[in-house]
Write a structure and sequence with these properties.
This protein is mainly beta and 521 residues long. The protein has 3 helices and 34 strands. The strands form 9 sheets. It has a 6-stranded antiparallel sheet with strand order 27-26-29-24-31-32. Strands 3-4-5-6 form a 4-stranded antiparallel sheet, with no helix packed on it. A 4-stranded antiparallel sheet has the order 7-8-9-10, with no helix packed on it. It is elongated, with a radius of gyration of 25 Å.
Length: 521
């Protein structure tokens, strides 16, 4: 079982409360998007270096398997710019094709001025670059491992720089356990911690067990680790075996030595519907204190891994070095002071748009184009040229095209009247080959003049045995429902409804909205 992950830091999950100083995490907002409106396609992540760089495995091309490693950058942990692949996945033999190079981690060698990428690929592979987000070239040989781990299947891992020394914490999978059950457990795996060589591209081949005195099923199903050093104690945070799932144990080990002994805590029974991807350190520029933030990846209701969401919350340490349980309340928010990255905040067409759904709404995946035609309406905020309208759509193996139509209309009452014809401003049809396996933009080019206050709409139709997927959010209490109304019409329903035969076949999706954005100049 080779887990392909990504590296990421927070994306659209944050709202900035003070200029470059405070960010807010939310347990509800888990999907992330870049400033051009596309889904952040990076699953299983870390952040570091100058700007904040988020990097991880892409699922947009293959859908069923990871393909390459994408990266994103941010200054403010709110606005994320897509930086491309760390390397060309079509030509790189070390990680070519699908499924390769999972759970990427990058550390920086100040002596050689090289960024060093480690990734999991039937063992580990290492690549170097002069830039944190592109141009990585793989070394000719794989790192040597501790003989005990090398006999297993090296899997989830993390590499970290602590006090100018490199460390690796990794799990070893054992598929040949004798006490496995028909249902569970299917595998056993344990954690190991050791040093990297001074050039940070190899290990010293000596590793120490990370397990508690209990040495029980929790210790022997630990994976997805990360490592920090705080106030004289070593901490290994991890989860239990959970391949691309929505929740597993959140565990932490602590010791005064990397050789142990280790004390273990369980911080959550399901990691707030996530699995650990890494610990994000954020430094308060005023106090210089570091807040360590738990970052987990989840699949919040989505039917596949490519719909992965993310959760971030600061860890709270007690005086004795123990860690308080995670707060999994859905309404919980957490404010953290941090040092902004270098440069100016990223911006793009989506982030600059005025007519759109909210940037920081709680989006969820909905796959029902086989059942409904959707109509999202809104009111134009300003007068100008409506150049395009985009909606986030994910595809799979449909055979029928998805049709997206932009229109204007006189009023909601007229729109629902039998025989009313709206005015089409633009339309496009999309086959799966025109879309991706994640929620990227499906864009309709319009180029029509609109006026402030004008009623506009977006129609999505494409019945197929395999439904297309879109994103929806709950309307906030202060949002005017007459401005943003999402209608649904059952496939094939074109006749009157109701006991008196006077109700239209179009119904409101109460207090729901569709994720979209437009360009008006």
């Amino acid at each position: 079982m080779r887990f392909s992950r990504i590296a990421i830091v927070a994306a659209g999950l944050f709202s900035q409360l003070a200029i470059g100083a405070t960010t807010q995490f939310s347990n509800e907002r888990r999907f992330m998007f870049d400033v051009d409106g596309n889904f952040i396609d990076a699953y299983g992540s870390k952040i570091n270096y100058g700007k904040y760089y988020l990097y991880g495995n892409s699922w947009s091309i293959e859908g069923s398997e990871a393909y390459g490693i994408k990266s994103y950058s941010s200054v403010d942990l709110v606005n994320w710019r897509y930086e491309g692949f760390l390397y060309d996945p079509t030509t790189t033999n070390d990680c070519s094709g699908s499924g390769g190079c999972g759970r990427p981690h990058i550390i920086y060698n100040a002596k050689t001025k090289k960024y060093i990428l480690w990734a999991n690929n039937d063992g580990y592979v290492v690549a170097t670059s002069d830039h944190p987000a592109t141009g990585y070239k793989f070394l000719s040989s794989q790192p040597a491992l501790d003989p005990v781990v090398a006999k297993l299947n090296p899997a989830d891992f993390a590499v970290e720089l602590i006090n100018n020394e490199g460390y690796i914490v990794y799990s070893g999978l054992n598929f040949t356990i004798t006490d496995g059950g028909s249902l569970w457990p299917q595998i056993s795996q344990s954690l190991y911690l050791g040093h990297l060589t001074s050039d940070l591209v190899n290990t010293t081949t000596v590793a120490y067990d990370v397990k508690s005195e209990a040495n029980d099923i929790v210790d022997n199903q630990a994976e997805s680790p990360d490592l920090i050093f705080r106030n004289g104690l070593w901490y290994v945070f991890a989860s239990n075996t959970c391949g691309y799932c929505s929740g597993t144990l959140a565990i932490v080990y602590r010791s005064s030595s990397i050789q142990g002994p280790w004390k273990r805590q369980i911080l959550s029974g399901d990691s707030c519907n996530s699995q650990l991807e890494g610990i994000l350190p954020l430094v308060d520029p005023k106090t210089k204190e570091t807040t360590y933030v738990w970052h987990g990846t989840s699949v919040p209701g989505g039917p596949r891994t490519g719909f992965g969401g993310h959760i971030f919350q600061p860890l709270v340490f007690n005086k004795d070095g123990s860690v308080q349980d995670l707060n999994c309340s859905p309404e919980a928010t957490f404010e953290v002071d941090f040092t902004p990255g270098e440069g100016t905040a990223a911006s793009g067409l989506a982030s600059q748009s005025t007519d759109k759904s909210p940037d920081l709404a709680t989006y969820s995946a909905v796959c029902d184009s086989d059942q409904y035609i959707l109509y999202q309406t809104w009111t134009a905020e300003r007068t100008g040229l409506l150049e395009s309208v985009s909606v986030n759509i994910a595809a799979t193996t449909q055979t029928t095209a998805l049709k997206v139509t932009v229109f204007n209309f006189s009023s909601v009452q007229d729109l629902l009247e039998p025989g009313y014809t709206f005015n089409t401003l633009g339309e496009s049809s999309f086959l799966p080959s025109n879309l991706t396996w994640v929620f990227n933009n499906a864009t309709v080019h319009v180029d029509a003049q609109v006026s402030a206050g004008e009623r506009l709409g977006l129609q999505i139709s494409g019945a197929d045995f395999a439904p297309y997927c879109h994103l929806e959010y709950p309307l906030a209490a202060n949002q005017k429902s007459e401005d943003l109304i999402l209608f649904q019409q059952g496939i094939g329903q074109y006749s009157a409804r109701g006991p008196k035969g006077s109700s239209p076949p179009i119904q409101v999706r109460e207090r729901r909205g569709l994720k979209f954005w437009s360009v008006v100049n």
